[in-house]
Structure formats: C-alpha cells, structure tokens
Amino acid sequence: MELLDEQAKAFYELRFRAQFLESKAASFQDLFVAIMSKAHPGDFIPCRPWGNVGDRKNDGYLKSERTLFQVYAPNELRMAETVNKVETDFSEALPYWRDHFDTWVFVHNAHGGLPPDVIAKLLELERANPSMKVTHWGFEELVLRLRLLSSEALQSLFGSLPPGPATKKVSAARAKAKQAQELVRSGKHTEAITELSEALAIARSEANEEEEVELLCSLAILSSDRRGRGDRQHYFAQAEKKVAKLKSAAAKVIYLRARAGSLQEACDVAGAESALMEAVQYCTSESDDAKGNLATQGCIVRSTLVHLLCAQKRFAEAKPILAECEAHARSNKDSAEGELFQAAMEAGIHFALDTEDAEGAIARIEELEQFATTLRLANRIGGDLINMANHAAHRRAYPAALVAAQASIRLGRRSHDPSAHRFLVGALYTEAMIIYKSGDDVTALGKAEALIDICHDPEDANVKQAAQHLIAEIRRCAGDSQSAVDLARQALEGTRGGPEEVGFTKLALARALNDNGQAEEALKQAKEGWNLVEPCNIPDLARADFLSHVANYASQLGAEADMNAAVNAIKHLPDDHTEVKNDKDRALARVDANLQLRHRFLGILQESEPANVAGTAKCTSLLEANALVVHPLLRLWDEAPAESIAGLYDFWGRGNFERMLLNTRSFPQSFNVTLEVRNLEDVKRAVRLWGLYADFLILLWKGPTQNGLAILPFPEDYEEPGGWGYIIAAGSVLKKEGSETKWYPAMGHLSIFPEEVAILLSTELRPFLQSGRLILVPAVGAGCINPGHGPFEQLLAEAANAIPCIRWKTAGTPIGLFPHSPDAPFELLADLAESESARLRKLRLLLLKRSRELRPGGAVGLAAKELSLEINDTLRDLVDWRDRVARQRGLERAEVPLVGKTAPFKASGRKLTLEAPDTPFAPLFVLQSLGYGWRVDGPQIPSFPPRFQPEKGDVVGAWLAPASPGWTIPTVYAENSGE
Predict the structure, then answer these.
(1) Contacts of 527 (CB under 8 A, 6+ apart)
(2) Integer Cα distance of 846 and 869 in angstroms
(3) In 266-397, alpha helices (H)
(4) How confident is residue 166, by pLDDT bands cut at 50, 70 and 90?
(5) pLDDT of residue 907
(6) Would you call 750 helix, strand, or coil by DSSP?
C-alpha cells in the first residue's frame, strides 16, 4: 500500500465527510458497503434484499468480528421513529442471525450524535441481551475504517488527488521513515530499525543533516539494549553532535525524548526527568504548526514522564501530568493512528496499578478494548494488553490482570488471519496463568489442559510447553508432586528451543522435584538450568529467580559450596529495580532461615541424651513421656478462657514439640506415622484410620492458618517450657473468675489453626493428646512451608522416627486391609486403644518390622512371606474384634488397602531413616482408596486443598524452639529511685 502524507489523508477524509453528510437512505448504505468491502475484502459480506424475503434485517456482516450491521439514514432523523427502528430491526434480526453475531451495530449519519432516547434504547437492548454487544456507528467510527484503505481504493471511491500541495513529493528518506512508522504500528520493531537505517543512509548520501539528526533520534527512541534491538547510545551520541541542525520545535522535542531514553538506559533517572521536563516546556511555550505536531509530542512526552514518576513512587506529581495527557488523548483519539490514545491509556493503567486503583486500571483497559475498532488496532492493542496483564499479575492486581487478558482474547478472536492463532494461544495461556496466581487452581487447570489441545502447530511449541509447566505447577501446589514431576519431565523431553528455554524448563522440573522429596536432583536441575541461562541476556529478575532456587535447595540440603556460590551471585545482582532488590532480600532471608531450621533438626537427630534434654528420663514408654509433655497444655486449657485455646496451643508448642521429637529418639522401637492434613475432615479421618494402629501419630497441618499479632492470657505460675517468641507484659494483671492465679497478657505473632480445628483438638481428640498418641503441628511452625513434601518434611519424619504416609504413584507391596470405622466416636477409639493395647501393639511391631525390610525392587524372601502371613492373621483378628464392637455400637464398618512402598528421600546425601543403613530409600505407607490429600489411585486430583504459603507475620520454625523450662518477667527500674 502506498503511504499517504497528511495532506492526502485530509483531502480524502474531507471528501468522505461531504458524502457522509449528503448521502441518505440507499445512497448512504451504498457508501457504507463500499467502504467496508474495500477495508475488509473477503471478510465483509454485504446483504441485499431478495424478493419478498428482504434482507432479514442484515445490511452487512463482518465475519472475522462476528458483527451484524443495520444501516439507517432518513432524510430527517426523528427520535420516536428511530427508537422504533432500532427495536424492530434488532428483534427481527435475532431469529435468523443470532448464532452468527456477537455485536449488533446501528449505523447512522446523524450529525452531532444520536438523540438520548435512541441511546437509551441501545443500552436497554444490550442489558436485555448480556451475551451481546449493542452499539452504534457514526462518522468517527466509519472514518477509522476509511483509514484502512489503500490509495488505489480511495481513488476509486473519491477520485484522484488534485495537483498541488496534496501530491507534494516527500524525500526518499522520509518515505522510508514513514514505512518504518507503519512497521512499528504493526509491532515489527526490528524491521522498522532496518528501514530507518536505510533512510539514514539516504539522508547522509544527500547531505541532508536535518533529516539525518531526526532519523538518528528516531533510531535512539526505538532501540532497546534490553530487548536486543539497535544501539541506543550509539545513535544518540551521533545525534547529539549535530543537534544544532534541528530547526523545528517538534524535532527538538523528539531529540529530547531520545536524550531522556539514553539517560534512563544509563540509570541517570534525574537526567532523564530533566530532559522530559524540558520537552514539556518546549511543547507549551513554542507555537504549534498546522498539524498540531507539538501537541502530539507533548502528549507522548507526558505519558513517558508519568511512567518515570510512577517508577519513583512520586504519584502526587504524576497525577496532574496524567490528567493533562489523558484529556488531550481522549480529544484526539485518531491522532497518530491511535498511538497517542494508546500511550496515554497505558500510562494511566501504570499509574492506577501502582496506586492500587483497580477500578481505574480496569476502566482504562475496557476503554482501550472499545477503541480497537479495526483489525489493525485490535492486533496492536491486544498484544499490549497481554503485556499489561502480565505486569498487573506481577503486582498481584489479579482482577485488572484478568480483565486485560480476557480483553486480549476477545480482540484475538476477531481476526481470521493465520498469524492471529499464535497471538490467541498466548493470550489464553496468560489468562490461565493469571487465574492460577489469583488462587483459582481448578479453573486454571481446566483452561491450561484445554490449551494444550489447541496447540497443534509447530509454532505453538513454546505456549504448549508453558502450559505444561503451568499444569505441573498447579498439581505441585495442590500436593500432587509426582504428577508435577512427570509433567515437567515431559516438557523437558519436548523442548527444542535454545539454552534459555531449556534452562527455564529445568527450573520448573526442579521445583516439582523439590516438592516430591527429591531435593538433591532438584538442586542438580536448577544448577544445570542456571549454567545454561547465565551467559544469556535474561532480565535480572529472572537471574534472581534461578539463583534463589539454587540457594534454597542447597541451604536445605547443607550443600555449602553450591549455596555459597549462589548467595555470592545473588549479592552481585544490581539493586536498580525494586522487584529485583525485593527478590534478593527474600532469597537471602530464606537461606538464613533454612540454615537455622536445618541446624535445629540436626540438633535433634544428633542429641546424645534426648530423654535428659526432654526432661522425660524417668519415663518407661513413648506414650508416658509424651503424656508428661502434654500435661501443662491441658492445665492451660482447663484454666484459660475458651477463646484462647488455639493461641495457648501455639504458646505451648514452641519448646514442647521438640521435647516430643526427643522422646521418639529415646524410644526408637515405637511405630510412629506422619501425615499431612489440610482440613477438619482430614484430621478426623486420619485419627480414625491411624489412631489405633500408630504408637504416635504426627499430623502436619497444611491447611489455612490465622496469622498475626495476638495477646493471650497467661498464668503467673507456669514454669514449663514454651512460649518462644512471646513477650509477657507483667505490668498488667488480668483476673479470671474463680481463679486465684495472676494472669498476664502474653503477646506474640501466631500462626494457628482455624477455630473449629482447635476445638476438635481440645474436646473430642483430647484423649489422644492426653495419652501421648497424637500431635497436630502447624506446618509453618516446623518450617515445612512447601505446598508438597520437601527436605524439611523429610527431616521431620526422620527426627520423629516415623513412617511417612504420602502420595506415591509407583507400585508397592500389598500389606492388607486395614479395618476402621468412618463414624466411630473418638472417645470410643481412645478407650479401645487402651483396652486392646496388647493386640494393637502386636500389629504395630509387625508393621514396624515390615517397614524396615522394604527395599526398592527387592525380591520377597521367605522371611518376608512369613511376616506377611503374620500381619494378615493379626488383621483378621482385628477385623473380628472390630465387627463385634461395630455391631454393639451401631457403627459403620470399612476396610482400607494398605501398601508398603519406598521413596528416595535423602538429606544432604544421607538416607532419611537411620534404621536401614544399607539403603538410601525410606519406607512409607500409602492408604490407597481415600479422598485425602494423599490419594494415589488415579491421575486426576479429586479436589484442590488450600495452597499453603507463609505470609507476613508467620513465625516460621517456632515449634522447633529448644526445650528451655520456665520464663522470666523483665523488671523495669525507675532511674535513681532504686525501685
């Protein structure tokens, strides 16, 4: 298409305006059809009346945009008749065309706009048909389509250009500059730089220094070192030498824009701001030309200045500049092919997101979408909306991010161009990713899995791979770590990209492996990924992400060389951007926390006199020792107000949980089981299934927690361990009715269970606590902050001498059917555990022996078969006993398959358990047919538990505090008073 200069455009738009105002009835419809047919060849379908059938209220149909048009241009537009026309045409079009259009457009030639009742009727129809868009087109909308026409099409409609200024020939350099501008508007920046470079060569060959400087400035503005296109500093340095050659004020403003970009790239923010402010001064003080170039440049400069000020959080200064920018852009929407309006809206969205004005961001996003009335605008704005969606998601502004992503999808679906498919799948992936980040795992998983089904072209490989990563991440965070590993491995095997793509894929696999208890391989994959991307030109934020994972896994495993290398690299990352600095701080803080948590676990594992440290040396069994540790908690519960139950449990656990772990070290022959639980029903089922069969049941709570600063009543005479991290305010005394004890406020940051869980623990499950058979541990309190299983979950199981019960998909060794009652009262279960202790003890010893003999892929020998028979005999005996109890109490009866398996759990190169020195594999039990978080009998996850993530205010690892008995009230003395 031949590029038109501004005078030619003005000529043809003037001709169109005249015909628009003069044409009536059929002649206006002919004008509309002619423009739309030439603007959308092969896409716009005119519809002419046919016999007595008519046109079925269809004056034209735009297939790619699923839009139906009805044209109305009477000699005199009357309000009542027009309202009736709108309602009749719309309602009569529905029976024939409903399945084919999403947008219905009333096209008119009313000068100055439609009457209010007509607008009200259009809004009423849209409200009554929420799945459709009902709107109108007048002069402004049609002129946008006119601008899509080639010079040949314009000539066929309105004749040739008259001789004179309208056909003034532009220089070859400027013609190429205009072509470059068109390429930029199509998103082809690299090609645009090539055109500008050729234009620069022409200007230099013709010794036109003014054009040369202008082209150098344009190249400097368009270039970006971060995006790997052009050399901004090189171009600007050349332009600066000849800046005196610039004559027009508009050209000088372009030079100042280039100067600002060069200074900002060199991290001179103050200098960049000064250049932009000087440019604004030029635009307001100098006389503008007939084309309004200074006003246009002023709007662009202000939008750039808003971005700069927002980055420095100077919102009060940015606000009036933005208001002026948006006001001008809204009044000149068509200026610069819509680029002016788009730039202003993007600046407004940036401002709204940074000031947490979600409604303002969403309103501007919707305004941008509505502005995209042509396919060209739809493609350009749709691409920018994807970027905005990602930026909003990064700021956790998920509602605005989702609106932007869905708007880009709608714009992408309007085009039938083959290249639009790639844009659309990218937008669909962005939508799924944002939904996932906002916490709706179920919807995100469905969209990501559906996306894979439409990624069938080779060009879709990157999006398909990203969708596989997203599915793996969703399953990982839902606790299905093995499925996440499988999916991540598939993505890695299918990778055909360069080092960056392979590196990021390895990092995704590392995350899944870490949650799956394979921390050593996770560290290996993360390191390999980092080695691939380190030489590449990836953003500092991505570098921080890679290094933080390497440092995280290495610090959990105690791999000091890898940890130190990653930490040093993190420290050398620049602090120029707030996001990078925040990621660096988080990574270093996490390493420090990991080292402290690991030190606490290893201290428990290496303690030579665990009973003495725990204060339970005189106890003769694990249950007796645990009961001694729990006794102070029960006393607190008996005396404190009911609303303090959860808080006091947290107070007691900080120091006493370590005592219980030390107890398990003192009695290694006990059959202990660790389970993850995420809701109240998980807790109940876990106790009903394992409460009778485990000596000690450790439930790791990974459900939602209530976090924050709280004040608890605390008795003066409490002298037991507990309360790490709490402050006792001895200056205030609280009174409790019926108690002679002084109570003080104890203040601390809590991470406690929901109230209904704490109540269950202190009432129905109290007998299990009291007898030392049960403990419910907040995951964040034990440092287990991974959504699935990681090294600290492994260390916890090892420290507790426990058999972990987690999800595992490999085949295992059947052990037998475990009898249980789904509705048995907990009080009855506790009584049975005491009255049938000998029978249950026999099964515990057999299961403990069974877990120790498990080997990966080992042959089942004679001794193992004898043990299996003995376990089956004991289980049959327990089934008979259970059936008698169930009949007497009217309880339900059920049996759950139990499988013995092994998992490659390691910690710093060591096996997880100490009892099997000849294998690095840890035994575990899996209950196969439950709807729990540890379900293993199918590839689908039946439900998504709440994702566990530590929040601000959580005290991570507080339950691993050392068992130091007693506490001290600090005393404050008045200066020189002796009091």
Answers:
(1) 550, 562
(2) 11
(3) 269-285, 293-311, 315-331, 339-354, 358-371, 375-394
(4) very low
(5) 45
(6) strand
